[in-house]
Structure prediction request, 135 residues.
Amino acid sequence: MTNTYNLFISHSWAYSDAYEKLIGLLDSKGGCFPYKNYSVPQDDPIHNAPNQAALRAAIERQIKPASVVLILAGVYATYSKWINVEIEIAAQLGKPIIAIEPWGSEKTSKVVKDAADKIVKWQTDSIVNAIREVA
Prediction:
């Protein structure tokens, strides 16, 4: 029997195309890689949280059931306050972090890579194998 992997995929809504492409890569594995996505979708009411503490608590609730946190390590991640908060929450909850270097990127986020348990390239098998390894 194959495990279902519980994933939290950290991403910036300004770069949601990369998030969508990553979901496409994972989905391309079909039944070979069953997973549940605990990420925060763009239309989620979490984005309307009354304050930052409520938003942080909502993100923590999403990360809690995840077995792995995936972070797209584009250079923009270095400047994202919320990605830093997600890294902090993942560390507090003892969740392994996989940094995914965007396809063809020359510059990546040192902040994300320093926090990562594993760093992989933008390739389906590399990402899936890393999730299986650290989960």
User: Anything to note?
Assistant: The domain at 5-134 is CATH 3.40.50.9200 (Rossmann fold). The chain has one domain: 5-134. The mean pLDDT is 86.
